[in-house]
């Protein structure tokens, strides 16, 4: 595909800027204004698509996307991958680079959609880097002109202003922003001699730039895509990753202090989950006792009703136990890439429907294709994910309105989504919904039950399989929940 260099629609650009200014002037803003800015970026730069990546505590995430990049919404971005770090570390504020430089950090996803080059501008709120605004193009031989670069720089400044004002930004309110440029970084020559040693590296290792540059790399050097953990003489453990600079022999190295596993929140999790477990257990015991003690005096209809309730509550209990095991076990045990196998998504979803309650099945319209390319992942987890989506569709709907299950594929991913016509989700809540213990509140009371762990665990499960999950408001009202997994026949194992 080749981009036709379309003229900038000045009326659309200034109309969009006027909407953003009005939102900010009235005290609004947040994700709706951020999304509108990304929309305007497409118009102002003649890009095929645009996205904003917010820097988070451990990585970045696409929190707003438009046009040819709208599929990337919710995708995690490995900001400290050595290749991407090299792109962020050097050059002007507005940088242009071919997708081929991304290598294993998502280039296949982008090339599979015909995107060949990017223009990126870092976003700063004061002196803090909070994210990066990018525009993607199809024409490999093209280049950003001064007008496009100036427009992207201006819009990045506008996003920075929105973050400075706050009003719902950052999206991840409990995660302090991380400036990947300020993370420890080194550049080595082909002989592993240090050429560049940034101030963050000096601070972490207590080695000044003067004493490090010109000397051999002092730690183990990983090969390929592996991460090496190393304990420095001071006792601090660091994680090290490295990549060869595309088109050269230099080696880009990123490293940081190893994040300790924390048990913060586990006591709260156990207390809340214990409360939720008591309800189905009490009901199951009550009906079981009734059946044992009064079997002969009950008619067939009463027996069937009691057995139905026991089965329904047992399914609830099973889902709660799954959440408990995933939340506690997944904290300490990282995903095993060798466990990811090709599987048929259509057959797996069809089988997962049997785990839903009769009421859920009655309100779910299934529109699955006959066949799809095989997905790569953990087949057994799909039932849990589907049950969570359908449960939420009913939980946040009035009178269990109908939801629709669909699936499809593109060049790099296989996806499925559940779209409902419930009360919907506000744009500023689409990322908060994945936080641990967060629940949508209606009025002053939590009336929907649960402990706020379902979507948190879904995201952990899906990202362990190198996929990603997202929520978005549905046009016309309601919510769309979507999961994307790598196609088994595509090279999509890197982070984008």
UniProtKB/TrEMBL annotation:
<dbReference type="InterPro" id="IPR050980">
    <property type="entry name" value="2C_sensor_his_kinase"/>
</dbReference>
<feature type="domain" description="Histidine kinase">
    <location>
        <begin position="272"/>
        <end position="489"/>
    </location>
</feature>
<dbReference type="InterPro" id="IPR003594">
    <property type="entry name" value="HATPase_dom"/>
</dbReference>
<keyword id="KW-0808">Transferase</keyword>
<dbReference type="InterPro" id="IPR036890">
    <property type="entry name" value="HATPase_C_sf"/>
</dbReference>
<dbReference type="InterPro" id="IPR036097">
    <property type="entry name" value="HisK_dim/P_sf"/>
</dbReference>
<dbReference type="GO" id="GO:0016301">
    <property type="term" value="F:kinase activity"/>
</dbReference>
<keyword id="KW-0902">Two-component regulatory system</keyword>
<dbReference type="Pfam" id="PF02518">
    <property type="entry name" value="HATPase_c"/>
</dbReference>
<dbReference type="InterPro" id="IPR005467">
    <property type="entry name" value="His_kinase_dom"/>
</dbReference>
<keyword id="KW-0418">Kinase</keyword>
<keyword id="KW-0597">Phosphoprotein</keyword>
<protein>
    <recommendedName>
        <fullName>histidine kinase</fullName>
        <ecNumber>2.7.13.3</ecNumber>
    </recommendedName>
</protein>
<dbReference type="Pfam" id="PF00512">
    <property type="entry name" value="HisKA"/>
</dbReference>
<dbReference type="InterPro" id="IPR003661">
    <property type="entry name" value="HisK_dim/P_dom"/>
</dbReference>
<keyword id="KW-0547">Nucleotide-binding</keyword>
<keyword id="KW-1003">Cell membrane</keyword>
<keyword id="KW-0067">ATP-binding</keyword>
<dbReference type="InterPro" id="IPR004358">
    <property type="entry name" value="Sig_transdc_His_kin-like_C"/>
</dbReference>
<keyword id="KW-0472">Membrane</keyword>
<dbReference type="InterPro" id="IPR035965">
    <property type="entry name" value="PAS-like_dom_sf"/>
</dbReference>
